[in-house]
Amino acid sequence: MRILRKVVSLGHWLLDSEKSMSDFKKNTASKEEDLIIESPHNKLMSPLVITAHVFYPEFATQLIQGLKQLPRETKVFATTPSKDIKKSLDVYLDAAGHPHDVRITPNVGRNFGPLLVEFSKQLLREESFIHVHSKKSIHSPGIAKDWLDRNRELFLTKEGIGRITSITEANQKIGLVSVDASDLLRGINFRWGRSKKIAKKMLRNLPEYDEVKWSGKISFPAGGMFWVRTDAVRPLFEMDWKYSFFPKENGQQDGTLHHSIERAVGELCVSREYYRAHLVLKTDSFYYV
User: Cys-Cys crosslink for 258: which of 55, 74, 78, 112, Cβ 3.0 to 4.6 Å?
Assistant: First the structure.
């Protein structure tokens, strides 16, 4: 099955009009002219909204540790399939005084299913939000742990959110901030691949459809964690979502609706004339992508 999946992915790559052998390498190169200059950050964005999907219990603890650094007025929208996790989050959030809504959801659509089905319309009323989840790819646990640690440092610490505040307040056209993953994944992973057909069906009725880049490498928050200006992805959140749209969980690595949404977040941002920025760990700096 794994070999067949690789063959199918290679087939999609061969059919792409924009490709090179460098797609099979990891590349962390960033252009100096794309560097984003950070100004001193002694405040956090307001309002601050955190959305989280908590599948694994240990992430509930990590989420709470992060929230302890953030202002009392920080809003929290969380989903989990576990009654115990919901209870632990509610107990902490009630005591800390955070405005919050924690819901029990089915294990469908990974982090994107619950986010869109439960909270898409509420989030349309927010200026921006951070989305995190308990990343733990069973097929590559080492990479997943490294990836989760990187994202927690940026999105669940006062220091990290302060840095995001600095660059997004200085440039109101930055619509998406994520952590670079090009040192962890090969270039071939930064394409639509098997998710293209699903994505085209999902976005076909949007006016932004013709502006979406459908070939070559694309930039998106690999792993599905990010800060986003709501207007940059508004069409996605205006859709009516149901859990029945998403496939049953079977450890899929690509080619599902939630993989298509992951990529669409990045491409919608550009089609709506916003910039994307990512944090490159090698230089500990933000760059436009």
Answer: 112
